[in-house]
Specification:
The mean pLDDT is about 85. The chain is about 40% helix and about 20% strand. The chain has a five-stranded mixed beta sheet. Strands 10-7-11 form a three-stranded antiparallel beta sheet. The protein has a two-stranded antiparallel ribbon with strand order 1-2. It has about 290 residues and is of the alpha/beta class. Helix 1 packs across helix 2. It has ten helices and twelve strands.
Length: about 290
């Protein structure tokens, strides 16, 4: 039989996540399409590639052999694309991060990128994981150690959280009200606020920036990372750190890409920036605008 890369790529997607539904969410293909392609691949090879069970899809010995060989092909495609980009234009390094972390990187862009660099930067702002394994980003800042075997990670610091109000104690603040997030609660801080103060949320916003503006205007209290709240002169911390929200910060990259010069250079600069600002992230730096 002649193998087709599209079939092998879908096979790798299923093999890596261990199930059709998870692979469907990652690839955008339907579970029915994935099942049909996997069945066709198994029929062409002449033996099963997975053991199906209620717990998911587990690779057979043949499946593991094919996974290893297909991974080599994938690495070859990655190297080929990198070679082409190096020869035919500067590389764009994509960095995925949550809203506040992306804003922090943007505010310190001069410490991360210089016009003479042989790469460009693209920030991918998302509160949910961006799939580095599928090259949706080259680097990612996450709040936990990566568990995927094809990802490499280094611990660069930790992030703390606290409750903040606007400095002018008016409107909702005076009444002890809170400002919350509308829609899906995808971040730990949004879920914490909903769990502890849902009955006191008087105003909501559908993005992080609008929530900060509402709090600064006095609409109520809300939770922010300390590197956001302490750096904003319009906000004041009104309670101690919320210990259960304290999280590690991991800088994540793909194993195959982590030693590429552009990725290595930018990863080093990001790690240095976060370590130099460790007191701000840990909530140990005096607030901007606070009286000594």
């Amino acid at each position: 039989m002649d193998f087709h890369w599209d079939d092998l790529k879908l096979f790798l997607d299923v093999a890596r996540v261990g199930g059709l539904n998870a692979a469907a969410r990652a690839t955008g293909a339907s579970a029915a399409t994935l099942l049909r392609r996997i069945n066709a691949l198994e029929a062409a090879i002449g033996e099963p590639l997975f053991v199906r069970s209620a717990a998911g899809y587990r690779l057979t010995e043949a499946g593991m052999d094919l996974r290893d060989r297909a991974s080599e092909i994938e690495a070859g495609f990655v190297a080929l694309n990198a070679w082409h980009k190096e020869r035919h234009g500067e590389r764009t390094v994509r960095i995925s991060a949550g809203h506040w972390t992306a804003a922090f990187l943007a505010a310190h862009i001069a410490r991360l990128w210089h016009p003479e660099d042989r790469f460009r930067i693209e920030l991918v702002t998302a509160n949910q994981k961006v799939d580095i394994g599928r090259r949706e980003a080259d680097l990612g800042l996450r709040n936990a150690r990566p568990t995927e075997q094809w990802l490499a990670g280094r611990l660069v610091g930790q992030t703390t959280y606290a409750l903040y109000a606007g400095r002018n104690l008016v409107l909702g603040v005076a009444a002890g009200m809170f400002v919350g997030l509308s829609g899906a609660l995808v971040t730990p801080s949004a879920r914490w606020l909903e769990a502890h103060h849902a009955d006191r949320i008087g105003v909501r916003g559908n993005d992080a920036a609008s929530i900060r503006e509402l709090v600064a205007a006095g609409a109520g209290l809300s939770v922010f990372p300390c590197f956001v709240g302490d750096a904003d002169p319009r906000l004041v911390r009104v309670a101690g750190l919320i210990e259960e929200l304290t999280a590690e910060q991991w800088l994540v990259s793909h194993h195959d890409e982590r030693h590429a010069p552009h990725v290595r250079t930018l990863a080093g600069r990001i790690a240095t920036l976060i370590k130099e600002e460790a007191d701000l992230f840990a909530g140990k730096r005096p607030q901007s605008g606070a009286k000594p």
